[in-house]
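Repro case for the chain-ordering regression, as requested:
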Amino acid sequence: MKCFSRYLPYIFRPPNTILSSSCHTEADIISTVEFNHTGELLATGDKGGRVVIFQREQEVLLEEQTPAVVLGSVLRVLKSHLPSFQSKNQVHRRGEYNVYSTFQSHEPEFDYLKSLEIEEKINKIRWLPQQNAAYFLLSTNDKTVKLWKVSERDKRPEGYNLKDEEGRLRDPATITTLRVPVLRPMDLMVEATPRRVFANAHTYHINSISVNSDYETYMSADDLRINLWNFEITNQSFNIVDIKPANMEELTEVITAAEFHPHHCNTFVYSSSKGTIRLCDMRASALCDRHTKFFEEPEDPSNRSFFSEIISSISDVKFSHSGRYIMTRDYLTVKVWDLNMENRPIETYQVHDYLRSKLCSLYENDCIFDKFECVWNGSDSVIMTGSYNNFFRMFDRNTKRDVTLEASRENSKPRAILKPRKVCVGGKRRKDEISVDSLDFSKKILHTAWHPSENIIAVAATNNLYIFQDKVN
Amino acid sequence: MFARGLKRKYGDQEEGVEGFGTVPSYCLQRQSLLDMSLVKLQLCHMLVEPNLCRSVLIANTVRQIQEEMSRDGVWHGMAPQNVEQRAPIDRLVSTEILCRTARGTDGEHPTPELEDDPLQSSASELPIVSSAQGQRNPQSSLWEMDNPQENRGSFQKSLDQIFETLENKSPSSVEELFSDVDSSYYDLDTVLTGMMSGTKPSLCNGLESFAAAPPPPSSTCKSDLAELDHVVEILVET
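-- result from build under test --
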């Protein structure tokens, strides 16, 4: 079997960590995954409105192998054996991710005016860069964005003068001395508190949030509008994009994703359901309905069908870390665009082109509307996106190699290298290949994340989170 | 389901209705896709606000199909041309005029599955609304955004009012625009079932029933109807 180490600069080891809920309900379906700016923290949001934050352990040199640890009742952490040995007696334990904090971010709501439920599902989480000891993140459901502060408490004041140990006020007559409370160490407690709630600004469903590089503002985008917020102000927001037609009958295009440029705080992009990307400059006007740049690839007439528009709808758009490129995901491909060239992408990668002949069935079972996300690695040299059957794909932009991997327990033995998978399109199926008709379309990987500087990836497969690290040594 | 995606086929007019085991004709596939799309637009979760992106994409697909059906309906029997290079607006206008003069004549726009239809209101007429034609498929008004000059019937006006109301209340869903059509759409069930069982798909019969009094809905539609009534109630109360 070919050794893929020659093709890709890293081989992903099977799960050091698989984290899954003990009970498999729909509320546990992971709906978003995001590393923070240092990669120390990994946040996930689920359909039940919960946010779970994982923290990477400090790397430790241990004397001997420690057994696997099983955590509490809510999450079951399965750890493989420790990674590669450096010497016989010493083990270098690479930082693994453990649960750091869990909180309920959003609750289900009911819109009485429209008699419709508002889902509590977390659509997106975005971290703010760390500016003090606390961590801040934005989480959003369909209608409301919340700013959460996650902070540690490891000291507790003890020895109050006016209160007893249980906190009850003491009778003043019994107080004869003066003493000042002293901070004493306590077990580490991580608490999450909602600091801001940005509500009532979106008529339609929020699909994206993006923190600006000025760290003072952020934007939230729904199907037809994009709003600009200041973190300190919750009762006002600026509407910077509005594509709602005067007559809703004429609606043919919606906003599908939006993101700020990583360095230029005046620039952002948004993608549409017609496969176009618009880049806007907020300096040009207050309402950015007129784009500065318009990215669209001409349609390939030979591939035209009734599903052409649907599969061209962009489900995710991401700036590269450099800010020079944007990556878009539509149903069958991932495309990389140079900001300086609007008429076509510079690279196109086929994610699962074997589905092209199945579009009618996928339309019937609604899979054609699945919104896959895509991510860059830290150096912008590799891009990753998900597919069906718990497959996810990586494309190396430099070597043009690609690989298909699977996130599943059965196929991931501890300490073994993840085996590349292959889908057989037609004709004779080889031993390890899987045929297109055997793919499980209910197992879709929509959300993935890549550590900002290291080769650590997080892959959400329905209600399971897989964290893979590359092989060291 | 179909073995492959739909592709345009010029001059590919398979005769009649196929038996089991043969690939359905392009027109049959297209019609089936249209019906599937309409059903998708109708069947939305009434509890949670429907996904606007999905609705818009399905609606655009329906529009595409209907535009193509209108073009093919007109140009059927003539030499295949590059019809798609013409502006859709021009196409619809000329089609509409043609349909007006051609109404009532037989054999004007035959398509394989419409051979026995006495009324000869072929699929090409579907997107072309003339207010004079009485109670029409109100959904078709959505597709005539390109031809505003034609939609001046009183029926259309009341639709506009409903759309505005919808816009104020719950503008996020295209399919709620169709909620006013209510029970007549459940004829799609009979049309679809008719197709699946291999009988002659009574395309025009299905279309006629949009115009005629809607037949009593089947029991499976009762719960959907109740939900629709609920929504319409809310709309009317504004």
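Ordering looks correct now. Chain B has eight helices and no strands.
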